[in-house]
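Please review the protein record below. Let me know how this chain folds according to its tokens.
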Amino acid sequence: MKKASLVWSCCAALVLSACPGPDDDKPGNPNPTHPVPTTITVKGKVLGESLQAVSKASILIPGNGRQPVAVDGSGAFSISGVTPPYDVIVADKERRVATVFKGLTLETLTVPLVLDLDAEQPDPEHRATVEGTVTGEQPSSSITTTSLLFASTGGDASGSVEPSGTYSLNVDWNGATSVSGTIYALQSESSNPLSLPTRYLAFGQRDNVTVSKDATLPAQDIALSPVTNSRLAGNYIVPEGYALSVSTLSLAIKPGSEFGLGLAFAPSGAFDYAVPQIPQTTFSILAAASPRDAQGADNEAQTILFKRGLTAGTTNVSVEFQVPARPAQPADAAKDVTRTTGFSWSPFAGGVHALTLQEDKSENQTPYTVTIYTSGTQATLPDLSAFGMDLPANTEFTWQIQGVGPAASLDAMIGLVEQGNPLEQGTGDLAVSTSETRTFTTAATP
């Protein structure tokens, strides 16, 4: 299961900073027992998936008669007179996409307008090749594999060593025309190529490897040293009515840089994995569970857990899934839905929610899509008429609810992504649930 198979929602990132307004305690307050609410000036920038400026978006913080503000050519904006807590709506009329964040209070924050883990990554700007020889392998009669990982701030590249002991590893990255990193090599054996390793043989690394655009860097040899084998054992605990569908085991060199050790398809409740003992490394398990009675993969609810920071030798690991957020109202295939129709769902304990509604059929244009982030369990469709995005009439939509945690509020959820994609760069556990899909049709006058 790829990490990229986990969708969180729409399309961009919004970096905000807020400056406090007048001090309520200063002399001149006409009624000290009922102080005038402190206002702030919210400044920020709208960024796209690859941290590129979004120059065509508009932003609105509802209240006080405010109207949407168009961002400038660098994606920046400024809105004054805002009283926390406040909502933020960002919309792109041409793409017919809007995202709402409800109840923000932080003065400085990074907001993921759309964090789509399924989105295709842009083509890398640069490529180089690293070549060398890996020595110190320990031959075995079982299936033996020596895997490589080039880890750098520009991204990771993985590959494998030829039976001859030589390797040629392509490294792709964005940004500067050269990048430095470390090449890691891990040798393991398994009973068949589709199973997790049964034993680890050797490990090695080569530091300070600098590659340059369109260049081949030769003679980057790596000497392997034997590793001690250990165990990682515990139990998968899934919600009632769910079954574990797949799990992956990875060796974490550092946040964002991991060796994928293998898949465990439809594993049982208990697990006992062989792992290598390598200093200053940990292990992570990314697992998914789905309803036992799911009717088709396209309409399947799912709950996912990314458990990090596991150490070799731990035998009481508890991989416990959150009960997913599930739709409540309106009923599936509801008719005559308007902006006042209430949408509700069961809570994702310890997390926040993302309600996504998308036009099911649209000809010659992108589907009308709205995503609402909230810590609550109910919402109505936002009024987007100020953006020129009235809700389409007599139109069929799909909707589903996702849960994200741990996060006790929208402010806390923002903290999960301040350093980038939480699946790639995070250091703590992360739980995500996606509900089954329901449909509704809007009224003639929505």
User: Anything to note?
Assistant: DSSP finds two helices and 33 strands in the chain. The longest helix spans residues 410-416. The longest strand covers residues 199-212.
